[in-house]
């Protein structure tokens, strides 16, 4: 038994010592789909919204009810000689709407409510995909930035040591030492800021996915900078006007307000219901017979016509019309916003790809400048200040390239979202292109 316990402890210790399993973009999404509380709430809201259709349809179906009664009577006046008696019975009733505008529009509103729930869930799913990608790239961006800062710090430290040595032997001035010290101190301060940003980015990714950020997979250095497909902005705008979830949501809200107008106007109209019933009653009240037992059934049509409601119905109609007008304006605002979002994301992809190429070339030039400046310093035609400036330009280009690369990838997903085309499959396609 003791050996089994030791084995179990050893296995647990080994498991805790193992590194976290690496994950990519798709792995982060799959984890978030099961872990993220906001997405779980959206899923539950969708399930609740599915009941709107059932509830609306139920108003058009027959409504059946059964009731029972029992009473015990003890007569006091006018004659105390009258004996006590009991009565009991039951009644079964069925009602079927034949004409009721309010119930019919309730059914239509139920269908729209279910569609709204589906649209809201799809929007939540697309937003989570974009949030996961953004958080994923933010971690990588923060890591690249911190790595560049630490490399810059190391360079400044070496230059500072060289400047101090040169000053001690009299081959350099104190100005070179001060310049190197200032660069080193600035790199130390920047390292603290970048480390803080990395921790925040990792915490955000962990909050969304529950995964350990240290296991994140990096992105390949050379990205395929493909243009959007289709390549034209107008094609993307047309696609967005047809598939945007923002526009679908606004259209469904407009349909809901139109049904409300029909419902309120229907309050002026009569309602017609088919009714049927069966009753059975027994009473032993003293009468000509020792016991009374009655049974009967009925079938009929009930018509109710409203005459006057104090002006309330007209007021409700005017309110519903105003809400319809507001929903119509909100739909137009949604269309304009979607067009703007598509243009912004489209430019983020096209101009972003050009920016990545330019930053890649700038990085090559900056690296060449550092090498030539270092050589020039060795032969005496360049100073430590020149080398510091060249090093700083190189690490700035390195950081700028990282920002451009991750912004380009985010813009690709944002463009798909603005057109209502951002699906898990879309994330998988991007993942295959970028992950090493």
UniProtKB/TrEMBL annotation:
InterPro entries: OMP_efflux, T1SS_OMP_TolC, TolC-like. Residues 317-344 form a coiled coil. Pfam families: OEP. Transmembrane segments: none annotated. It comes from the Bacteria. This is TolC family outer membrane protein. Belongs to the outer membrane factor (OMF) (TC 1.B.17) family. PANTHER family: OUTER MEMBRANE PROTEIN TOLC. The lineage of its organism: Bacteria, Pseudomonadati, Pseudomonadota, Betaproteobacteria, Neisseriales. It is found in: Cell outer membrane. Residues 1-22 form the signal peptide.
